[in-house]
């Protein structure tokens, strides 16, 4: 007997005394929790997102569409980046002001090749104000999940206010659960039992978020 068969057998035994007409799980649990906490204007929601991103030690920048290319070029220049990984569907205009070598998002790229890239720039699917979380779903302007987990510097562009929601329930309404979702709350960090914080263990050590109005 395989492990799978053992587990399914235990499930069947546990459910043996459940009536066939019992209330389905989907209706048995109340789903009347709050969609968001409090009432905020669009501007207040964006401010809350920026505040919580910064609280997670992300570096937040604000600009308009016309200034985005200049901001991105400045961030790469300040970082000293000589290469930037670019998803295939990223807006070309975002990199119009930089002369940094562009690296394509390729299925054949090895972790060592990705580790040699100085920076990566992506868009996002949605940004959650109450938790300071960015969600990527693998769309063409976000690329494969691993390109945001290996390079040490991630620039993420958020379109304001279209991509900003207040809460996790609101974000889930927009997301496709069948897509490869990556939830990012600040730069990669972990702590041991002594609470010594170490950044960059399983993701970028530096996360810069550009809010584009």
UniProtKB/TrEMBL annotation:
Domain LUD: 103-212
Pfam families named in the record: LUD_dom
Superkingdom of the organism of origin: Bacteria
Transmembrane segments: none
Record PANTHER family: LACTATE UTILIZATION PROTEIN C
Protein name, UniProt field: Lactate utilization protein C
